[in-house]
Amino acid sequence: MSPILQSRANASAIGYGAFSVAAAASDFESIATVTVGSGGAAEIEFASIGTDWTHLQIRCITRSETTASYLRIRFNGDTSLNSYTLHQLYGDGSSAGAYAEASGSSSVGEIILQTTSSHSANIYAAAVVDILDYRNANKYKTVRSLNGRDMNGSGNVLLNSTVWLSTSAITSIKLSQSSGDINQYSHFALYGIKGA
Q: How many structural domains compose the chain?
């Protein structure tokens, strides 16, 4: 079952490599894809997600039209800062560190790293995001992402995670940034994972 896509972007098919959840190639099922069109997009949304899978995965390349470095993730229209957390491990080739935000902080749920308008033109960051046990009504929802970006001589790698403090099954996913639009040609592909 394919979801309804709600976006100011044009839709087209694209997908990128996978990681994390152990599953055979046949266990990954393409659900929907979005390519951001001319003029950018304030947000993208995967809506009316079915219940046919165990986990979900988003694979994307993305760039901001502004200096917003992260895309935040929101589920089922829940925009409350009290509903999300943030954990982060990061490195830039010479140093590494860790960071966390409790629920209620302004950056909670900022899980996808982007290149921005201050970086070299036409360079996009890449991320793979796992949304675990998305339809399990007995637990909060854990999300983890592996991110990287090149900045023409420097760059970053990040392992981010967030928890959505809700036991509701996830039926929609919205990605947006704190200000401005997601750049044209950013690509997002949603997959369902049938494996355990």
A: 1
